[in-house]
């Protein structure tokens, strides 16, 4: 089975082909990079309207060239329905509906955050892991129970990447800030910053205000970046450990663009090792926003008969992972 996925919830205009028989995923992406400031929804949507047609065309060409014998180049079209920026999602939804109609194949509506989780589960082969999604606009722990991915803990304010990006805008760095923080942290030393975990939830607003203030007060940016990583990733690791402990699960997967950070991966790997749990972090191309994860989950949903009619395929900018009935696990799973 070959599923074409389309992603475009915020900054990555991306299309992919996932081939289940060959277990291969071909991804073509075109990122939106703001000249200054953060992601501007109108500019991001303009980027989607220009870039989505060309990334889709590249993937369609690839699908035509790699189909063998009487194999169909595409069996279904999957797309990110949300969560994300409304103006961007509308363009992705329109492109997916038009493509599914033109190819006369079924349409699959994918929750972007569940896709961040499922790519880790797919790649690791873990059966029922807890997932830490550490992305730009989100930060939460998910665990499977009774047919849904339940939110075990989450940010009480901004997503983790967006919080880091707010600090880097304050110091005048261009978007995205996360990789620059990681680089600067290599030369930094520890200073105290607020650390806010409340049970299974956490908050980033206090630490980000304190980091900006520390910068204005003359602390070195390297020390602040080092300490931001230690505190923020320490918070995520503490709650991830509590999620493993409370659910009795011994598998953890990482999802989301912040998961590309080596220090976060190191902290999670060491926590898992200490408690005898298995840890898996996907390859960076599957961590940052990408259509590969949409195509992979789209293929599982399509195999389970979880397709949607055009009239039911409206996008949802606030689509939560626990709203999704998990139809693809178990017998139907490919
Ligand atoms: P979501 O998936 O929640 O919609 P998003 O669309 O912003 O989020 P992602 O690709 O998951 O996209 O994550 C992007 C975020 O990852 C940005 O905030 C960026 O600064 C951060 N990031 C990227 N690389 C690193 C890194 N090496 N260290 C820390 N953060 C990073």
TrEMBL record:
<dbReference type="GO" id="GO:0000408">
    <property type="term" value="C:EKC/KEOPS complex"/>
</dbReference>
<feature type="region of interest" description="Kae1">
    <location>
        <begin position="1"/>
        <end position="328"/>
    </location>
</feature>
<keyword id="KW-0723">Serine/threonine-protein kinase</keyword>
<comment type="function">
    <text>Required for the formation of a threonylcarbamoyl group on adenosine at position 37 (t(6)A37) in tRNAs that read codons beginning with adenine. Is a component of the KEOPS complex that is probably involved in the transfer of the threonylcarbamoyl moiety of threonylcarbamoyl-AMP (TC-AMP) to the N6 group of A37. The Kae1 domain likely plays a direct catalytic role in this reaction. The Bud32 domain probably displays kinase activity that regulates Kae1 function.</text>
</comment>
<comment type="similarity">
    <text>In the N-terminal section; belongs to the KAE1 / TsaD family.</text>
</comment>
<keyword id="KW-0963">Cytoplasm</keyword>
<feature type="binding site">
    <location>
        <position position="116"/>
    </location>
    <ligand>
        <name>Fe cation</name>
    </ligand>
</feature>
<dbReference type="GO" id="GO:0002949">
    <property type="term" value="P:tRNA threonylcarbamoyladenosine modification"/>
</dbReference>
<dbReference type="GO" id="GO:0008270">
    <property type="term" value="F:zinc ion binding"/>
</dbReference>
<feature type="domain" description="Gcp-like">
    <location>
        <begin position="26"/>
        <end position="295"/>
    </location>
</feature>
<dbReference type="GO" id="GO:0005524">
    <property type="term" value="F:ATP binding"/>
</dbReference>
<keyword id="KW-0511">Multifunctional enzyme</keyword>
<keyword id="KW-0067">ATP-binding</keyword>
<keyword id="KW-0418">Kinase</keyword>
<feature type="binding site">
    <location>
        <begin position="133"/>
        <end position="137"/>
    </location>
    <ligand>
        <name>L-threonylcarbamoyladenylate</name>
    </ligand>
</feature>
<feature type="binding site">
    <location>
        <position position="165"/>
    </location>
    <ligand>
        <name>L-threonylcarbamoyladenylate</name>
    </ligand>
</feature>
<keyword id="KW-0408">Iron</keyword>
<comment type="subunit">
    <text>Component of the KEOPS complex that consists of Kae1, Bud32, Cgi121 and Pcc1; the whole complex dimerizes.</text>
</comment>
<feature type="binding site">
    <location>
        <position position="261"/>
    </location>
    <ligand>
        <name>L-threonylcarbamoyladenylate</name>
    </ligand>
</feature>
<keyword id="KW-0819">tRNA processing</keyword>
<comment type="similarity">
    <text>In the C-terminal section; belongs to the protein kinase superfamily. Tyr protein kinase family. BUD32 subfamily.</text>
</comment>
<protein>
    <recommendedName>
        <fullName>Probable bifunctional tRNA threonylcarbamoyladenosine biosynthesis protein</fullName>
        <ecNumber>2.3.1.234</ecNumber>
        <ecNumber>2.7.11.1</ecNumber>
    </recommendedName>
</protein>
<dbReference type="GO" id="GO:0061711">
    <property type="term" value="F:tRNA N(6)-L-threonylcarbamoyladenine synthase activity"/>
</dbReference>
<keyword id="KW-0479">Metal-binding</keyword>
<feature type="binding site">
    <location>
        <position position="112"/>
    </location>
    <ligand>
        <name>Fe cation</name>
    </ligand>
</feature>
<keyword id="KW-0012">Acyltransferase</keyword>
<keyword id="KW-0547">Nucleotide-binding</keyword>
<dbReference type="GO" id="GO:0004712">
    <property type="term" value="F:protein serine/threonine/tyrosine kinase activity"/>
</dbReference>
<dbReference type="GO" id="GO:0004674">
    <property type="term" value="F:protein serine/threonine kinase activity"/>
</dbReference>
<feature type="binding site">
    <location>
        <position position="182"/>
    </location>
    <ligand>
        <name>L-threonylcarbamoyladenylate</name>
    </ligand>
</feature>
<feature type="binding site">
    <location>
        <position position="289"/>
    </location>
    <ligand>
        <name>Fe cation</name>
    </ligand>
</feature>
<dbReference type="GO" id="GO:0005506">
    <property type="term" value="F:iron ion binding"/>
</dbReference>
<feature type="binding site">
    <location>
        <position position="178"/>
    </location>
    <ligand>
        <name>L-threonylcarbamoyladenylate</name>
    </ligand>
</feature>
<dbReference type="GO" id="GO:0106310">
    <property type="term" value="F:protein serine kinase activity"/>
</dbReference>
<keyword id="KW-0808">Transferase</keyword>
<dbReference type="GO" id="GO:0005737">
    <property type="term" value="C:cytoplasm"/>
</dbReference>
<dbReference type="GO" id="GO:0004222">
    <property type="term" value="F:metalloendopeptidase activity"/>
</dbReference>
